[in-house]
Write a structure and sequence with these properties.
alpha/beta; seven-stranded mixed β-sheet; binds zinc ion
């Protein structure tokens, strides 16, 4: 299985529009972060987790020609805004794109992209098929996906485990029952927004503390804001099994 980080930034991305901080002005490519998304290529399927506002650019940059399904974590704009751009896959793959998400996310997608769900559709609108995800494992063409239910302040969000890879974003609480589901994964990705306390995201310390409890072979941080500092500095201060992710990073799992 091959993993590619398509985006590792928080909702505003890095650099932030008009910001002149040292991170936003950094010329290190590892400090340029599109909105969070990851590409998972198994022997059978190509999955993308979340399709935010940078979806088009991310698909172009990673040259993603096949797309079997999009797994959505939650309905916030930075995770779904790019769904209109599945039109390219409708056209080239000649099929509807399968989108897996919680029921509450279906309602948001149907309202944000209402034109794709009308009875009489305007020609050329995105063709999306919504599939409901509950907190039970499900299978897509031979690959088992295990949802991990986490809390993003009061909102229930799904992380996903595929094989030995677990991806969790936009969390600030994970129950012990859900942690059990990811404990044996070799690679765990988790969100770490910044250093200062935040109402709906893990801080750096909270993410590190949680990962120290879980002790995976390797862990990566994502959904990073410009307030977390330069990649080079961050990398040095983390325990050796935790790395800050960056756009374009690929892993084999
Ligand atoms: Zn987000
Ligand atoms: Zn969110």
């Amino acid at each position: 299985m091959k993993i590619t980080f398509l985006g590792t930034g928080t909702s505003q991305g890095v650099p932030v529009i008009a910001c002149k901080c040292n991170v936003c002005l950094s010329d290190n490519p590892k400090d340029k972060r599109l909105r969070s998304s990851v590409l998972v290529e198994t022997d059978r399927n190509t999955f993308v987790i979340d399709a935010g506002p940078d979806f088009r650019q991310q698909m172009l940059r990673a040259q993603v020609e096949n797309l079997d399904a999009i797994l959505v974590t939650h309905g916030h704009k930075d995770h779904i805004a790019g769904l209109d751009d599945v039109r390219a896959y409708n056209y080239f793959l000649k099929k509807t794109v399968d989108v897996y998400a919680r029921k509450d996310v279906h309602e948001i997608v149907k309202s944000d992209f209402f034109y794709a769900f009308e009875d009489e559709k305007y020609p050329g609108v995105p063709e999306i098929k919504l599939h409901e995800v509950n907190n039970v494992p499900f299978t897509i063409s031979g690959d088992t996906i295990i949802p991990i239910e986490v809390l993003h302040y009061r909102l229930n969000v799904f992380g996903y485990r595929i094989g030995d890879f677990a991806y969790i974003t936009d969390a600030n609480y994970i129950s012990d029952t859900e942690i059990e589901k990811i404990k044996s994964a070799r690679i765990i990705v988790i969100n770490a927004l910044r250093r200062k306390k935040h109402i709906s995201h893990f801080t750096l310390d909270e993410a590190v503390e949680l990962l120290k409890r879980i002790q995976p072979e390797q862990a990566y941080l994502t959904h990073i804001s410009h307030q977390l500092g330069l990649w080079n500095d961050l990398e040095k201060e983390l325990p050796s099994f935790i790395k800050p992710a960056y756009d374009g990073l690929t892993l084999h799992c």
